[in-house]
Amino acid sequence: MTYLSGFVSPVPAANKEQYRRFAAESVAMFKGHGTTRLMEAWEDDVPSGEVTDFRRAVDARDGEVIVFSWQEFPDKAAADTAGERIMNDPAMDEMMGKMPYDGSRMIYGGFDGLFEVGTRDAKPGYVDGSLIPVKTARKGDYLAALQRQAAIFTEAGAARFVDAWGDAVPDGKLTDFKKAVRAQADETVVFSFIEWPSKEVRDAAWSRIYTDPRMQEDDPAGDEARRIFGGFVPLVDE
Questions:
Q1: What dihedral do alpha carbons 2, 125, 31, 21 form, nearest 10°?
Q2: Overall number of domains in the chain
Q3: Labelling 41: which of 70, 72, 133, 162 has CA 20 to 30 A away?
Q4: Hey, is 80 helix, strand or coil?
Q5: Phi-psi category of 82—alpha, beta or left, where left has phi over 0 and alpha has psi -120 to 50?
Q6: Confidence band of 163 (pLDDT split at 50, 70, 90)
Q7: Which domain, by its residues, includes 175?
Q8: Can you name the residues that pair with 116 across neighbouring β-strands?
Q9: Whole-angstrom Cα distance, residue 45 to residue 112?
């Protein structure tokens, strides 16, 4: 199952085109070391939350927007090999010097594929991104709920539905995935996304999903009060 390197970054809104070029120019290097896909998605519908949200996750400042991104690998071994090669590539140092945002507040980590429905047959027109803390001991319950809910999202028009279990999620000096969702010692962070054909399909789908009685049947293993979520427009998808 797909292994993910997940990222959330605060980027000045004025640097959108500069960020797009920066990301596009990095594709060849990452793919050369084993990344099979690189997605960079720009904030479109990112709400403020009562307890947690994407802006607080990266301590976003006035004038900054959220970029939700990930890299895909065939498995953890491929991701580990790629990570080692990338960190030893001089091109990485050069790229870091060109970052058009504050990398010290970017959060990142490795996530092992837990559940996946759909295929990447076409580039999505819209992406929903989410983070949630889940009781580690209830991993099986969380997976079972995803399996039951998959039909709901597919029926609503989702092209791909992916949840990945925190595997290598480091502590950060300023920000990190665990701080983002206020994860406790007995919880694991889950990184997930839904790919939609368009924003219009996505908007229509959520009105159906929220009212579907099947969504109320599960005893949640994750704390929905601390879930972070938002909608994003793909900026680079290669």
A1: -150
A2: 1
A3: 133
A4: helix
A5: alpha
A6: very high
A7: 3-237
A8: 162
A9: 27
